Amino acid sequence: MVIEYRPRGVCSRAFTIQVEDGVIQDVKVLGGCSGNLQGISALLKGMPVDEAIRRMEGIRCGMKATSCPDQLAQALKTI
Question: What predicted TM-score, i.e. pTM, was given to this entire model?
Fold first, then answer.
């Protein structure tokens, strides 16, 4: 399954997340902080979706009510 998601309230413009059997296989992010998001993407590979949501949901970026990790969790919750 491939999730195409447009995040809200962050610098990133689009997420493409590949999930198979409840495990994240790949994460691609358009826009945002390249180095940080490449690191997050690498760490998520092989992680169960539920674990990724648990770890990232609610993370804030500065004064924003959300962050790229939080938006990734929201994308994963659409499964």
Answer: 0.96
Q: What is the pLDDT of residues 18-33, one digit of tens each?
A: 999 999 999 999 999 9
Helix (H) or strand (E) holding 14: strand 12-20
Average pLDDT over residues 30-48: 97
DSSP element (H, E) containing 76: helix 68-76
Residue 35: give the domain boundaries: 2-76
Q: In one letter, which amino acid is 23? A: V
Give the number of domains in the chain.
Answer: 1
**DSSP secondary-structure letter at 60?**
-
